[in-house]
Specification:
The protein is an alpha/beta fold. About 45% of the residues lie in helices and about 15% in strands. α4 links the parallel β3 and β4. The longest helix is centred in the first third of the chain and has 19 residues. It is globular. The two termini are about 20 Å apart.
Length: about 325
């Protein structure tokens, strides 16, 4: 692993890290994953305690942080939307100062990026972004570990993101690809693309790393030569149910299906940050599929369950990469 130190640092967005620092975290995650698989204890932060603030609930993020923290020897306190007064009876700054005096690190998963940035400003202990509306950096580390495990490298790989690229996943994948020298393509309607300011920032970074940033509206054409095909749900947590009508109409042509994967070729992999509406076996998936007369939403079951799909390896890697972030920064 590269000689990098992130001790005492926050982990808020990948824009804050150098390519060497991101690579260090991926290397550390791979090392910690190997130790866990081999049954080698690595409780290097014995006696420390972390707080997990979840204004948006989650299965993978919560379990990843809790298991990772316990593997590192730490105590965990989980604060769900009903268990914290953050932003209601107590300001973000005051909450940060209180929790920062009691805990060695704080995770936040919720709404605006400004909230996690304010927590970091006042907490005086490392703060980690478990997801905001704008960025999801821990997910990208897991994605990149998965890609590297499969292909042996990141640099020069082509990643195509299908769907709504305006929010945390489109933003974060674009930033991550720019930093690490991958070729990022967002395949979506023009109005569903990242902000012009962020695109300009990423293109400037890409000019230094050999990455490329581009946008396409033809889902079959853009799949050709892709190494990784990526998508996410069309409507995110916290958004009103009314937006389903608009999203299904706009994004149905960008579903990842057999035609897309066929155009990508037999060596391409499929990734998804989960949960996925690939069938009718969830309450929301069933309701929306029946409402719109569909069998699946953003990805077909054929692709999700197919040989190219690495979604469950990717989900496991959330825990290993989150562990690396906590191990490195505490």
């Amino acid at each position: 692993m590269e000689n990098v130190s992130l001790k005492g640092r926050d982990f808020l967005k990948l824009l804050d890290l150098t390519p060497a620092e991101i690579n260090y975290l991926i290397d550390l995650a791979a090392d910690l994953k190997a130790k866990k698989k081999a049954g080698i204890p690595h409780a290097i932060h014995q006696g420390k305690n972390v707080a997990l603030i979840f204004e948006k609930t989650s299965t993978r993020t919560r379990c990843s942080f809790e298991v990772a923290a316990r593997d590192l020897g730490m105590g965990v306190t989980y604060l769900d939307p009903s268990g914290s007064q953050i932003g209601r009876k107590e300001s973000i700054a005051d909450t940060a100062r209180v929790l920062g005096s009691m805990f060695d690190g704080i995770e936040y998963r919720g709404f605006g990026q400004q909230i996690v940035e304010t927590l970091a400003k006042y907490a005086k202990v490392p703060v980690w972004n478990g997801l905001t509306d704008e960025f999801h950096p821990t997910q990208i580390l897991a994605d990149f570990l998965t890609i590297r495990e499969h292909f042996g490298t990141l640099k020069g790989k082509k990643l195509v993101y299908y769907g709504d690229a305006r929010f945390n996943m489109g933003n974060s994948l674009m930033v991550g690809c720019a930093k690490m020298g991958l070729h990022f393509v967002a395949c979506s309607p023009e109005e569903y693309r990242p902000s012009a300011d962020l695109v300009a920032t990423c293109k400037k970074i890409a000019a230094e790393t050999g990455a490329t940033i581009s946008f396409e509206s033809d889902p079959i054409k853009v799949a050709q030569g892709a190494d990784a095909i990526y998508t996410d749900v069309w409507v995110s947590m916290g958004e009103p149910v009314e937006v389903w009508d608009e999203r299904v109409k706009a994004l149905a042509p960008y579903q990842v299906n057999g035609a897309v994967m066929g155009a990508a070729g037999k060596d391409a992999i499929f990734l998804h940050c989960l949960p996925a509406y690939h069938d009718k076996n969830t309450a929301i998936g069933r309701e929306m599929c029946e409402r719109f007369g569909r069998d699946a939403m953003e990805v077909t079951d054929e692709v999700f369950e197919g040989p190219a799909s690495l979604v469950f390896e990717e989900a496991e890697n959330r825990m290993h990469t989150i562990k690396a972030v906590m191990a490195a920064t505490l």
